Amino acid sequence: MADNADNLPQAESGNSNMGTRIRRYRQERNLSLNQLAESTGVSKGYLSALENEQTSTTKSRRPSAETLYSIAKALGVTMSDLLGRKLLATAITSPPPESLQKFAEADNLPQADIEMLNAIQFRGEHPKTIERWRYIYTAIRVSESMDNH
Q: Is 126 domain-assigned?
């Protein structure tokens, strides 16, 4: 996943807090507190308290990782986005499969694209053929224009 920390919504007063970010992401997606509560399984009251920073003084009311994950998933963002932190990149420990290496060499792919493709799995497996890698890569490249609309 891309590092979205630089694209985080910022409060008008400067550095925004988690509650402000949750509210901003929710509003950008035209979701009510009720809708977010239904999709996350988190109570509307607790979400409201988070958005209004009524939990910052009480440690026991700080959201758990599970709660943050549910909120992030429902909003289509990362937990890092909600926390206002840069996403920590995980190193890919396994080398790319031979079919990906051959495709990357044939099409002269940049290292970043090879690493991105190496992270792709479908039902727990990498694509097996150069043609399938090319199809996936082309689909990703073609879909880039969708981000501009």
A: yes
